[in-house]
């Protein structure tokens, strides 16, 4: 019996070992996955590790690898531990390098002076990023490296990047999650070195205009060019068309109306507005093919010169210029890095697109900006590329045979089929991340992309490239006008598809564990080649089941005690809030609950100026905005939620959450299960990290 059990155990493990060894050439593809595991571990820690943890772990593992270098499997095991250690150290080092002061609390209005580094247009104003900030009367104030302000005035001032301005403003620390497990803007702001956000209460005065000549600050000059280009495009093309053109050519989509943005999201076309690999690849691709075609018309060059390599080098230079003009965001940098590897492979006569190039691009991005692992742009872009390479790796030879000796009509049908397949694969690969971050899926995204993507590839981006080339001569209207017609068609497609019945499916929030299992299953399916890779489908299925088992909270209250919302058993959401539907807190709550709109029902929730009383699961919940409401709430409510401190005993309440609890724990989620009340705060799982320190312990806003 013992021998049977031993042989039964050894048989599958030996088969797995043989399959693993047989795919030896695919092992390096897992390097970015192990790096990502170390980065994820750093961000999951409950408190900031000591500075020496990362380098010591890497040093110890490097020494261990040297000791066992002659023992293949032992060395492989050490390297499998070394990659996460390197990722952990990279994230730890990045966090310490971007460290800067953060305002301790709400300040102002104060007289703020700063230099503009970026201007983003908004439908109802502008948003400024300021550096070298000072506050009048506070010479010892430790200023944040970047302050981001929103200006909403009827008449917007004429400002330029590099201008030094003075205005009265209200400053606040970057906000934490609007609900437990929601997007942490404070963490994202930490890595962007944004130490304060706020709004202006007076018109800014330019006290020193930017030097428009010279290149003392190249980054500042690029900002000036971007701002001027975006303004010129919005002035040249009317309304939404100009705003979309500014998004595609200058990376400034702030002027696009919320209605059009929502239509693009609901039709699955929002990715066309975010500068990514699609746009960078199209600019470089058109440059490459057009220049190669023109050079091929010269027989002397076509026969004797490496015109393909010349075209690749020129395309790379053009893509770098496009990177600068569109703002050089992390997704654009990632796309340019991928393109650089592709063009380098062309110049070195190597395979242009492969999993190895993708793996090295991912390694470079993760080491350069480890925090990008947590961003939706990183996750969705790499998921899409992994899925596409995997599918075309298998179908590539078949498609080459299909294209050979085919007429123009059949090639056109093949192109449309490839667009359909690409859209389908990219949509399936990115859907888990879209659902996790946005809690919605565009049901007709395939139809929308089938119409809009070829239009973007064959009309919009070639016109954009032509406009760039004609701009120095003042002839850009020759390209902008036809480009505007194509943008109008894309917007019409977006609004039409978004208006179809059932265009959007809403999905409640699910856990990061479910997303992680789906991700690992998808990687297992795509990165291996043998039949054992289909085990990844089982992991994906398990992740999907876990995603459907999410435990949604019954009640949410924001960290300021201003708003409360409750989810009814039928899925509808009741709100007691001064916020509009568009407010970030309210929209986050509705999105995570998978609800489209809130409702009001006086039979279930009764509100007045002092607070609200909610009948929930046979019990009463009191929401007190004013201390005068506490007397009644403490007599009748089983749960008391208070925006003010509760300094006395509440006889009827089984639990009290007051202003001090909200101040300490942030936004609070309440779950009511079988008569038991459990509470989860947004800050409970954030730990004591640099971006989530307790209030009053931060650096900015204090005087020496």
**Residue windows where pLDDT falls under 50 for at least 5 positions:** 694-699
Largest β sheet strand count, sense and barrel closure: 5 strands, mixed, barrel
How many alpha or pi helices? 22
Shape: globular
What's the total number of strands? 18
Q: How would you describe the oligomerization state of the chains in this entry?
A: single chain
Total domain modules: 5
Approximately how much beta-strand content do the residues carry?
A: 5-15%
Helix amount, in percent? 40-55%
Distance between the termini: 77 Å
User: Rg from C-alpha positions?
Assistant: 28 Å
Spatial strand sequence of the major β-sheet: 1-2-3-5-4
Question: Quick recap of the structure?
Answer:
The protein folds into five domains: about 25-95; about 105-210, OB fold (Dihydrolipoamide Acetyltransferase, E2P) (Beta Barrel), CATH 2.40.50; about 230-505, no CATH class; about 510-545, no CATH class; about 555-675, no CATH class.
